[in-house]
Amino acid sequence: xxxxxxxxxxxxxxxxxxxxxxxxxxxxxxxxxxxxxxxxxxxxxxxxxxxxxxxxxxxxxxxxxxxxxxxxxxxxxxxxxxxxxxxxxxxxxxxxxxxxxxxxxxxxxxxxxxxxxxxxxxxxxxxxxxxxxxxxxxxxxxxxxxxxxxxxxxxxxxxxxxxxxxxxxxxxxxxxxxxxxxxxxxxxxxxxxxxxxxxxxxxxxxxxxxxxxx
Length: 214
Description:
The protein is α+β, with helices and mostly antiparallel strands. It has helices spanning 13-25, 32-37, 41-52, 83-86, 88-102, 106-122, 147-161, 176-184, 196-202; strands at 4-7, 65-70, 73-81, 130-138, 166-172, 188-194, 206-213. It contains 9 helices and 7 strands, in the order βαααββαααβαβαβαβ. A hairpin with a 2-residue loop joins β2 and β3 (73-81).
């Protein structure tokens, strides 16, 4: 089966929004993005489309993504980035542009940040010199067809060619199928973070950090 891989473009923003939402939900029905944004699923997707196309690049920007296509249709995507350049600091610097576009007041912005704190508590620390793989998702009807494996192979090559010696990915604790799939690709357990509030909100204890030598 032919799977085409290409760099994402600004007009991919709606699809990338779905990818980010699906990846955040993982094996559950509720994820960090809808908890952060609030409102309806469409509100969340609209917010994520804006996130993907800010003027300042960051870990959720379209420029960090590669997209898989089959038969002329986008079927999956993931991102890879250097956290020293495009990590959370860059993301926080880009957020005001999105807040302005959606018209959030300071109180609404503060409330969103507070909703995000349990997730931040369990976010894995960036390993030194690591290339971070993020926001991995494929359309349900195209899963188990090699889409994610192709994407993962390409993004790991990109990280290696950028001079990174290892790759890092985070997986929700108890998402055994995803963890096994990454371990088959060579990732190994490094550490995990747990938090009671995280489990209450998202239905899983926390996040596992996996590492791979490139």
